[in-house]
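Consider the tokenized backbone below.
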């Protein structure tokens, strides 16, 4: 018999940069296909999968704000960018054999279902992958917060922040060769030390609702699979650290 699965339902948080590939802007179709294969591997394990993806590959709101752009306008542009990314990812995932639904809290009926929590749950129960696009539907909130909110709403067992780094460090490992990686930290430690796990609103939301956050390297072939089997991979952010043995 194979190893047991630790998580029945997961929410994967991807950055828009995950779709860049070797480009500096936009959507790389080959990269979308590779992402789709990684999601398919999770779905084939019998795990229910939902996703939230950012839009940093298409739109950087900070650049607009630096030029005096209205914050709400910049945020709405970012939310629309996430819909474009979701559609590209949906297409790649459907071509790999998965059944996918995109939901958005902003009304875009030609390309996405309206976000309805009970419908999303039904899709997951039927084995469909659900991509939550459009952020929370409100400006002033990041896609990190949208991921935390949706993970809680659908009753996910864990929120997995899939990055290009193998966990959370006490400083930037690219700049500091002596940076120390955490295997397990509490929400309060992440907040107090200003570690770049997710934004403060997202971490606080997870803390209030006891939603564990797992930060791992999506591109390290075995890490995601091992984590789903309960192996110690990446950095786990939760209420309490495990007691020392």
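A designed sequence for it:
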């Amino acid at each position: 018999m194979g190893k047991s699965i630790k998580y029945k339902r997961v929410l994967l948080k991807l950055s828009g940069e995950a779709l860049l590939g070797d480009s500096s802007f936009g959507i790389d179709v080959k990269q979308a296909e590779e992402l789709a294969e990684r999601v398919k591997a999770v779905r084939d394990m019998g795990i229910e999968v939902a996703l939230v993806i950012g839009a940093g590959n298409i739109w950087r709101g900070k650049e607009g704000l630096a030029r005096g752009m209205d914050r709400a306008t910049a945020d709405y542009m970012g939310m629309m960018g996430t819909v474009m990314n979701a559609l590209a990812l949906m297409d790649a995932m459907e071509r790999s054999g998965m059944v996918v639904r995109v939901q958005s809290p902003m009304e875009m009926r030609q390309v996405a279902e309206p976000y309805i929590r009970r419908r999303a749950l039904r899709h997951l129960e039927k084995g469909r992958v659900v991509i939550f696009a459009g952020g929370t539907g409100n400006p002033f909130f990041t896609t990190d917060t949208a991921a935390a909110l949706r993970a809680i709403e659908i009753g996910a067992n864990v929120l997995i922040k899939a990055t290009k780094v193998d966990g959370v460090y006490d400083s930037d490992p690219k700049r500091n060769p002596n940076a120390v990686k955490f295997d397990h930290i509490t929400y309060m430690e992440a907040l107090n030390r200003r570690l770049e796990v997710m934004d403060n609103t997202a971490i606080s939301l997870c803390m209030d609702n006891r939603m564990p956050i797992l930060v791992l390297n999506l591109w390290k072939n075995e890490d995601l699979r091992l984590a789903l089997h309960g192996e110690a991979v990446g950095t786990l952010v939760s209420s309490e650290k495990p007691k020392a043995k």
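The helical segments are 29-43, 61-66, 71-95, 117-125, 143-153, 187-192, 200-208, 223-228.
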